[in-house]
Amino acid sequence: MATRRILKERKPSLVPPAVAAAASLVLPGLGQALAGQWQRGLTLLGSLITLIGLYAWRVHDLGRGAGGFWAILGKALQRRPMFAGFVLGAIALLWLWTAWDAYKQAQPKLEEWPGASIFFLVLIIFFVLGWQIGEIDLYKAVVELPDAWPPLSRVLWPWEAAVERETESVMAEATVLIPCDDLPPPEIPTEVPGEPYIKVEPTCGDLSAFDEDYNVVPGTTLLITGRGFGPNTETDIWWIDPIGNEFRQRQEGEYVTVVTDDQGAFQMEITIPHRAIPPSSEGRQFWRLQARQTSEVGGLKPSDPLRFSIERMVETIVLGMMATIFGILFSIPVSFLAARNLMAGSKPTMALYYITRTVLNIVRSIEPLIWALIAVIWVGLGPFAGIIALTLHSIAALGKLYSEAIEGIDPGPIEAIQATGATRLQTIMYAVIPQMIPPFVSFSIYRWDINVRMSTVIGLVGGGGIGFLLIQYIRLLNYRAAGIAVWFIAITVALLDYISSEIRAKFV
């Protein structure tokens, strides 16, 4: 089957094809512009400038410390030969291809030329640069998945932490001198029959520390021996510093625990953890090491993470609702000022139209997260700051949506009302607003949905809501509590989506 060739009529070129190709060799895209393809030429020029700029930045970053351009490029090629070499060759190929494309574009009649292929090469180079800039490492993602799975599983199924019982604790402690000095160290505690007991050997040592390369320098290894605890029970290791601050010890990212044997005894080795010595403590630094067993008693009751998540989720919903209400109230009058078909009557009204549009574009271009940071500085931490941030963004977003809906209304009713001699206000009341109710309802409900979801994000910077609670749990590595918050966010968004769809079905 013969291939069908199509001849395309081109705009007359200002220069011969050879001159267009030479021009694009000097300045990419210039030949296309001279051939009458201005948009194509500017697109290619902008793409090449961006690619060269990104490549130069990454090469400079990879070759940091080397002197001179060629030394930097050589070091970058040595460190990332596949990336640096491929992108350099691809950019050179794209430059030459731009010249060949200019030659083809300058021809008066041209057989079907696969001109889109050059943009496919642009996308490939952007993808490779994005891969390098994003530091994507699929091997690392696969290899480290088993280590990440334990906390992820707690987030995915956190309900063990949703309920709790009253607890009672059994503990014993020993004193450790940190660091050792010339005086005698603390004595091993005396064992009291029938009571929990631990001893630590040695009774003095040094804290773990970090060297100049931020590598851990392990502290003194302690041997802990315990007796008199409940049999076959998990026992936690706690430290209390000289001024009374207590903390659980971690090793390799996990809390240090030990399970007692059938007689309620245990023996284990730990390394003295890294900890800043409290500046308010004076003299010899006596630390206390405790072994604690906690057992559950009584019936089940909602846990603190569950209660806090419910409270903060209600706060999040109300925060989004209040921001939406304020946004609607302020954006409706603004939307009429931003509608061209209503403001095109005179130069003053058109000036007001352009001013309103400019302000809406500026406010909308700033993310609610930034507005939340500003509001927190203004009114402090809490949901009020979140309401201010979401209200400002809602006014700008709804004002734009409402105004575009007004511009798209049927002009027939407006002309009919104006023919009766109605004023501008009467025209808006009886010809514009009735047409605007369905899209206004739809946009308002959609914005409420956005505000509820966004309020979970602005909480991360102190704007109130469940996001504020979520970031605290993540910082404390309490993944089950964080999972409860995530589940509440997902359930609430799903319910709001269902409710909003039902409301839209009634009004739209």
Q: Could you characterize the architecture of this molecule?
A:
This protein is an alpha+beta fold. The protein folds into three domains: 9-136, no CATH class; 164-301, Sandwich (Immunoglobulin-like); 304-507, Orthogonal Bundle (MetI-like fold). It contains 17 helices and 14 strands. Strands 3, 8, 9, 12 and 14 form a five-stranded antiparallel β-sheet that branches. β8 and β9 form a beta hairpin. The two termini are 53 Å apart. The relative contact order is 0.08.
Using brief descriptors, characterize the structure shown.
three-stranded antiparallel beta sheet, five-stranded antiparallel beta sheet, 508 residues, MetI-like fold
Helix/strand layout:
Blueprint: E1 7-9, H1 17-26, H2 30-34, H3 38-62, H4 69-79, H5 81-105, E2 109-111, H6 117-133, H7 138-143, H8 145-156, E3 163-177, E4 197-201, E5 209-210, E6 216-217, E7 221-227, E8 234-240, E9 246-248, E10 250-251, E11 254-255, E12 257-259, E13 266-271, E14 286-302, H9 304-337, H10 340-343, H11 347-365, H12 368-379, H13 383-407, H14 411-419, H15 424-458, H16 466-475, H17 479-507
Antiparallel strand pairs: 1-2, 3-14, 4-7, 5-6, 7-13, 8-9, 8-12, 8-14, 10-11
Low-confidence stretches: 1-8
| Class by SSE composition | alpha+beta
CATH classification, class level of the largest domain: Mainly Alpha
- Strand percentage lies at 15-25%
Give the number of helices.
17
Shape: flat
Question: Strand tally, please?
Answer: 14
Separation of the first and last Cα atoms:
53 Å
Mean pLDDT: 85
Query: Largest sheet at a glance?
Result: 5 strands, antiparallel
Helix content: 55-70%
CATH-scheme architecture of the largest domain: Orthogonal Bundle
